[in-house]
């Protein structure tokens, strides 16, 4: 997840590799998607891993919903 500055909407970055047969190489590419977050996921923050699923259009750019939320590993606090 990249950004959560909107109300109940996240921006999720999807990284992937695209193959170019002419050059026989892969290129890194990414796509930013706007994703709706229901109130059932109150603690979603930047850096978290989310699973998204396609749904009907909810807004001009929002076409996906959050299905699962996995907190980021670096947010774990260790108390001594």
Summarize the structure in short.
The chain has 80 residues and is mostly beta strands. The protein has no helices and 5 strands.
Structure explained in plain terms:
There is one protein chain. With 80 residues, the chain is mostly beta strands. The protein has a single domain, classed as OB fold (Dihydrolipoamide Acetyltransferase, E2P) (Beta Barrel), CATH 2.40.50.1000. It has strands spanning 3-6, 9-20, 25-36, 49-54, 62-70. A 5-stranded mixed sheet has the order 1-2-3-5-4, with no helix packed on it. Strand 4 and strand 5 form a beta hairpin. It is globular. The model has no long low-confidence stretch (mean pLDDT 88).
């Amino acid at each position: 997840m990249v950004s959560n500055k909107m109300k109940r909407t996240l921006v999720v970055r999807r990284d992937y590799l695209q193959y170019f047969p002419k050059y026989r190489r892969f290129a890194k590419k990414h796509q930013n998607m706007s994703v709706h977050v229901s109130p059932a996921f109150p603690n979603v923050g930047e850096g978290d891993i989310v699973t998204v699923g396609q749904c009907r259009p909810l807004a001009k750019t929002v076409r996906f919903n959050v299905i699962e939320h996995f907190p980021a590993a670096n947010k774990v606090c260790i108390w001594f």
